[in-house]
Amino acid sequence: MTQANQSTIRPLLSFAIPTYNRAKCLDRLLGALLLQLNGESRVEVIVSDNASTDNTPAVIEDYKQRGHEIRYLRNETNRGPDFNILLCFEQARGKYVWIFGDDDLIAPGTLKRVLDALSLQLYDLVCIRAYAIEGEYVQHKHFAPAPDLDLARAEDLARHFNVFFTFISGMIVNKERISSAPHRPFDSLLNTNLGQLGPFYTALNHHRRSLFIRDPLIAGTGNKNVGYALFRIFGTNLARITCEWIDRISVQRAIINGTIQTFFPLYILLIRQSKFSSISENPHQVLRACFGKNFRYWVFDYPIYALPLPLARIWLLIVRAINKIDKLLGNPLVRS
Hints:
alpha/beta, Spore Coat Polysaccharide Biosynthesis Protein SpsA, Chain A, 2 domains, nine-stranded mixed β-sheet, 9 strands, globular
């Protein structure tokens, strides 16, 4: 098949990487990714550069010189992360789009596993579990394999994934399906730090079938110093966008309740221990305004904010135990 003919065939999957001043991380990710491609014609690779001032262009050029096909897009100025993520989605030619963080990694064999799933069944979303790493990546996490879940109800996917809909590297979306579905303008989410939720939430609203890959196949760097207000973004912004964009109340509740129960307790403690830093904010003031009428905030989050640190650490262990039991019982607390 000629190169001209290949360019006219729509890829099954677009693997799109928004990046900014992370040339070393990007090089690491591309090296791992391209090993898995190995001439795979069903995938296109896109890198969207938000006007990096480091050697990102040289990294891309090096891979091109070695014969790798990469569509390199470069913004004239840094338009912010939301713009760059949505640009990746708009520019993707694939039936499915996988927008992947430049500082994350996928386990060996993951790409083939995803492509096999996409070739056998039509999905709206494919969600993949991740885990956090610190320092240099050496070897992917060993885990007890768990069977994938094929889910017909958006509510079921939401109670499993909830806050992780915000994690771009763990989400593959059917662009062909949602591009033809009615939805709010995706660019209305610019400057919320959650622009990716537009396509994902549209898929949930028009959901027919999704796949949840429960094996942790993505390694996230778990950055402990972020340049944004964590509780405002994952509290105020996430709650507002979820209620505005998600049509079904049951899906809204699963996302918001899961975020309160499983996400905030750890980060409240990390902030108190000075093991995580974001733009200065008072977690209680922010979260109470969003979730003060939700009993979960007062049970799962507020004690970790208010108790002396030794007791707060113990309370986090209790919270994790409750969440584990809730999960074993089918998440009745998350979905109620």
